[in-house]
Amino acid sequence: MHKHPQSPRKLRWRSAAAALAASVAASAFLAVPSAQANEPADPPAAQQLPSPTPGFPLPSKHTQQAVDPASDFTSKWTRADAKQIMAQSNPSVAPGQNSMSPDVTMPEIPEDFPAMNDDVWVWDTWSLTDENANQISYKGYDVIFSLVADRHAGYGFDQRHWNARIGYFFRKTNADPAKDKWNYGGHLFLDNTSIGNTEWSGSTRLMQGNQVNVFYTATTFHDVAERNAGGGGIAPDAAIAKALGKIHADKNGVTFDGFQHTKLLEPDGKMYQTKAQNPGFAFRDPYTFADPAHPGKTYMVFEGNTAGNRGDYQCKGEDLGYQPGDPHAEKLTDVQNTGAHYQTANVGLAVADNKDLTKWSFLPPILSANCVNDQTERPQIFIQNENGKNKYYLYTISHQFTYADGMRGPDGVYGFVGDGIRSDYQPVNNSGLALGSPTDLNLPANNPSGTISGQQNGRQFQAYSHYVQPNGLVQSFIDNVNGVRGGSLSPTVKINFKNGVTQVDRSFGQNGLGPFGYLPTNKRIGGEGLYK
């Protein structure tokens, strides 16, 4: 596994805690061997959470304590927590510079980045993994999966979403990640065989033998032609689905076949918002995993929204999360009157009811961001052993423009840590922000699809859809670098984290930037024959 590529090359190419029951004893976690967790990230230089900033509210108190995954406790990412993003930002930078700490800022991507593929745009990307999120090399090949769209079909980069298909790429495990390009294998599924007419993000697991389960978002747009022509607007349908197929590898490369598709889940309207309740609902991005604390069970996290008709939600004191008597606390009525109740993101949880993973049941959300943010996309559970105890890091991604009024934060990765799948999650760095594109948070956000305007940092939307890998490597795609649009994979960066503290590792690669599209494998399956 290439953890610290240092190849001499020029980057010339072209983005209510007290009420928690102690239902899971700490000893149960202490007994779990670290081998069942992810390969841990390196620790940050400092492992103390940031001190309070004068003039800002205190963050909410979180115990990190775990409860049973089937219980109805939902941790809150509160406004008091999210206010720490600005508390830890520099109010005095020159307009348009980066105001965030270097510890949470992604290094700058060069404008002359390479096109990963000349025929398709590439964005949300994930690896072939096992149930413990190890990244699998299969018969000597590394394999990744990406959302792709045709660069030459006549529609623009921002119209890719309703034309998205899952494609796959492969290259030899012993390839030089700084020089050897990924080989594009084409669409993963045959045309007109998936559950929806559009395929959105998910995850892919190697099962027994050469079987693979692809969990994905089956999205159905009813007005693709109109949207491609610049119109449309009918809300799509969405379901979580899976496809069981087979992977093959030989001297010529990697192929897939035999996929059988099964619809798994649709939002219930009780815990997870439906299209009827909100045409802009979110229900997507399935990520499945095994929990060493609950052997024999398979869980799934996904992006959702709090159930109920859009606009009906009433902000609660627990959503604000201010400590009693805090002089900088907002008033509940003031927050409600700003329209913050329209922001109702959550991270959902489901459990498999059979070994074939074809039947699933909803569990209550493990995290809500009501009155804080409206999107918690592509969630992942990253389990790493810290001081003999497994800690559960929930990573998700979000945008500037999905924050509620009075909140401010960059496009990027947000993290939360607890003692189990369902915990009173502590936001990393007290704020939740783990990694953001360079942004001047003192200036208002701009539309990510439009021209970079005014004085704002030209790299505020340089990368998105981050995917956290073993050892803290983080992959994303390039969206907009100083007005140059992307559609290719970003340079991989590395975050070190422990004890709820994260830090960008600027010793990694070239000034913090590793190779473009670097998703190294850390486990080999299927024989050694092609490694040499």
Automatic annotation (TrEMBL):
Signal peptide as annotated in the record: 1-37
Binding, Ca(2+): 285, 314, 374
Polar residues composition-biased segments: 61-74
Any one Gene Ontology BP term: carbohydrate utilization
Name of the top EC class for this enzyme: transferase
PROSITE patterns according to UniProt: TAT
Keywords of this entry: Calcium, Glycosyltransferase, Metal-binding, Signal, Transferase
Stated name of the protein: Levansucrase
Residues that bind substrate: 123, 201, 375-377
Listed cofactors: Ca(2+)
Taxonomic path: Bacteria, Bacillati, Actinomycetota, Actinomycetes, Micrococcales
InterPro entries, alphabetized: Glyco_hydro_68 (IPR003469), Glyco_hydro_beta-prop_sf (IPR023296), TAT_signal (IPR006311)
Species the sequence originates in: Pseudarthrobacter chlorophenolicus (strain ATCC 700700 / DSM 12829 / CIP 107037 / JCM 12360 / KCTC 9906 / NCIMB 13794 / A6) (Arthrobacter chlorophenolicus)
Active site positions, chain numbering: 124 (nucleophile), 377 (proton donor/acceptor)
GO molecular function, one term: levansucrase activity
Enzyme Commission code(s) on record: 2.4.1.10
Site positions for Transition state stabilizer: 285
Family indicated by similarity: Belongs to the glycosyl hydrolase 68 family.
Residue ranges of the TM segments: none
Superkingdom of origin: Bacteria
Chain intervals for the UniProt region annotation (Disordered): 35-74
